[in-house]
Specification:
Layout (H helix, E strand, L loop, with lengths): L7 H7 L9 E7 L6 E3 L7 E3 L1 H13 L4 E6 L17 H12 L4 E6 L13 E2 L2 E2 L1 H18 L3 E4 L6 H11 L6 E8 L6 H7 L19 H13 L3 E5 L5 H11 L3 E5 L1 H12 L5 H15 L3 E4 L2 H10 L8
Parallel strand pairs: 1-3, 1-4, 1-12, 4-5, 5-8, 8-9, 9-10, 10-11, 11-12
Antiparallel strand pairs: 2-3, 6-7
Amino acid sequence: MRRLRQNPEIRALVRETTLTVDDFIAPVFVVPGKGVKQPISSLTGQFQMSVDVLAEEVFLLSQMGIKGVLLFGIPKAKDAVGSASYDDEGVIQTALRALKRDVKGMLLIADLCFCEYTDHGHCGVLVGDEVENDLTLGETAKQAISLARAGADIIAPSGMMDGMVKTIRQRLDDGGFPNTIIMSYAAKYASAFYGPFREAVNSAPSFGDRKAYQMDPANSDEAMREIALDLDEGADIIMVKPALPCLDIISRAKERFGVPIAAYNVSGEYAMVKAAAERGLVDGEKVMLEMLQAIKRAGADIIISYFAKDFATLQNTLPKTATIN
Ligand code: PBG
């Protein structure tokens, strides 16, 4: 076996997995206001940005070859149903219109959820202490059409409500948006790795947890059922989240369904690497590349990652495709 490992040239020839900027989507955080670029303390190198600053950042990402940004909004005000999420003048809608106008050649992906917009931090409408599925679907339809009208190329529902993909597809088709793509968070686990994100958007649930709608990390067959349902309901791309703890799920889904799969390399996965690198415990760059490569090797076609810009920067400074070691 070692004959094919003896020098960089032969290793390059037989390498099975190659990362490129085409694989990446960069998540971004949008806030109201002007000239705002607020560092997010839980996510080194990430910022809450007002629309004007965001437009410059997204332009830069497009120049670096990144093909998509996933937008998360922090609204001015929150309420019980998250109505700011379907306000046509809302923070994401405003950002979508500005980016559509000012930046060409970038896919605009809108996360569709309520936890950033509800005063209780849950991903839907509460009845008592429970997120009510079908009431939430009604709100979901409103948000979907508002996001499409504002210019979202892709809608990414992340609430883990049953029937959400069907509701969105129907509403988009009826509303004159047959070409809007749905990238569904199909297998989304109730994961502790989302901690830094919830700090970034102030969306931690004010009571309880998300275990009644997000999946139990112990389950794998259930993920296959979730994915099958979402594909049946009209999802174009399915997502597995988080990424590193779910490489088996990515791999199983790829083999079983053969559809485009996105993996979300979430906030906690990013923050761990940054923190360990800052302490000198690991080589942050090499660990990043090994991690991202593993996600692709497992079967992900698309990697949503806070490392997107770091990766693109690294690749743009290298004479050829970046590799580990
Ligand atoms: C919204 C949503 C979350 C993330 C993406 N969309 C948070 C959650 O489910 O609590 C997490 C992303 C990350 O950790 O990077 N529901």
